[in-house]
Specification:
The protein has 13 helices and eleven strands. By secondary structure, it is an alpha/beta fold. It has two domains: 115 residues, ATPase, nucleotide binding domain (Nucleotidyltransferase, domain 5, 2-Layer Sandwich), CATH 3.30.420.40; 164 residues, 2-Layer Sandwich (Nucleotidyltransferase, domain 5). Strands 8-7-6-9-11-10 form a six-stranded mixed β-sheet, sandwiched between helices. The longest helix is centred in the N-terminal third of the chain and has 20 residues. The chain starts with a strand and ends with a helix.
Length: 300
Amino acid sequence: MIVGAVDIGTNSMRLLVADVDDGRVAWLDRRTTVTGLGKGVDATGRLSTEAMERTVAVLGGYGEVLDAAGVASRRAIATSATRDAENREVFLDAAGDALGVRPDVISGDEEAALAFAGATRDVVGEPPYLVIDIGGGSTEFVYGTGAPEYRTSIDIGSVRLTDRLLPDRPAPADQLAGAQDHTAELLRSVDLPGTPGLVIGVAGTFTSVSAISQDLPAYDPGRVHGSQLTATRLAELTLYLSLLSVEETAAIPSLDPARAPVILAGALIAEQAVRKAGATEVMVSEHDSLDGLALQVAGQ
């Protein structure tokens, strides 16, 4: 069954066209475009006109891809920034026109469940699993074996933390320390029911940081998927990124330049999240909530 899945995140817009059969998700077309939809939402409570226009233009392109592929079964979801924005209905109307389907604003719990379904569908490792999904506005933790047994969504993500506490690059030591303390305090509410056998990191922060860690000459999903990042290495990368300007960060060959303003905050959250899990390392996966959404659209 050919399905279409669109994830409207705080920072990135993502599209998947997939052939789903018996629980297997075969990618036919997968795209990511950083539009910064949620920049400033934490302070203003509103999506900016410019960010909405950028995002709707991208979604219009995604709608054309879905139409060209003849995708009848499609769903779009919107997450943290749209949940928090008081003018979300204006955006959702325009996004629906662009995509041919009106996005559903989902809860953090549903977001976590989709990430778990996508990340664990063909994983090799010892359960129980902990999936950590760092977005632009929130971070999800979901724990379980065959299905989620515990899940929680924390209101901290790469865009939100940047807006709140990491506005400068290079980041002064006091800003970095303040961001670390703030993140640790928010993560105190995470109360896992057991010790995970495998920690899986999904979405753009983990995949981008893995590519940076490997010093790849260009982003390579095959090299990123299944790679390992230790908590110690994440701490080293956080310090490294904190010493760079946005322009220097954007020049890293494997990094999408549009992620440069927020990747420091993402790396910081990743290190703190892995340590909160009581783990020494995380396996990075290219399979995430978008794959979980494709399974859902296909009724699997």
